[in-house]
What does this fold into?
Amino acid sequence: MQPDVARAAVTAPEPCPNCGAVLPVAPVPRYCWQCGQDTLRIVPPLRRRARDAVDRYVRTLVALIARPGRLTEEYIANRRERYLPPLRLYLTASFLFFLIVKVLGATGSIHVVVAPMVDNHGHAVTATSNPAAYQAEMAKMHACVDHPGSCSWGRTLASRIALAGDAQSSHPEVVAQRMIARAPNAVFMLLPVFAALLMLAYRRRRYGYATHFVFSLHMHAFWFLALLVLWQLPPVALPIGVLMLAAHAWRALQRVYGGRWWVTLGRAGLVVSFYLLALAATVVGLSIASVIVT
It folds into this structure.
């Protein structure tokens, strides 16, 4: 009786330590079939964990930079464990970008002009550039704000924003710092917009929204890293860098979504055009928030 009990104990299936799913007996899989949890209960040494992490980062960066679209292609093919997860890759790249921008004092190279209004030519109107027009327009805006109902709600709102901007006009460096501080959240909000544009452009593909979102994460991660390089290029080489950036995006779309090259080029142009409109609206909102929030 005892050998039978021992044999039953050996052949009894064990649950996954993470989700409780029943695992096959022989051979025991390396990872759980349901949640992907490592079935080994042994904590690997710190040196091994560090080496594995470095290898994973290097493998991910090589695929991201040298093989456009490869990460998304591998993700779709369910070959994911060898690379960084898409969200972690995006957060790492964006954190590195904004950290360098802040630590190296890049906000000093951002020229921000805070003015309550612009003229017909798009030039800022300030107390020094055009005193007469500045005083006249300021009086109109104060009248709208001080006498509710005398102007339309749109004019009143614009006047409030312009007056708040005028109050910050003597501290443009503070406004620039606020814009940089809010930029990560603003870019993160654009991720689902970019994915939605891809879904519309490739609506005949059998990809769900999650797949387009993964591609969006990979593309934005690459753009963050590429911007760090473009930042250091001389003005003469900047157009070449921008062209290489566009070629990388086109190749990534070709690898993931397929199609003829000229069709991909047209779709990329439409996606980028609408995305730039969303980006411009975000920049405007970011600028407004930076001047009206103290």
Notes: The beta strands are 117-118, 124-125.
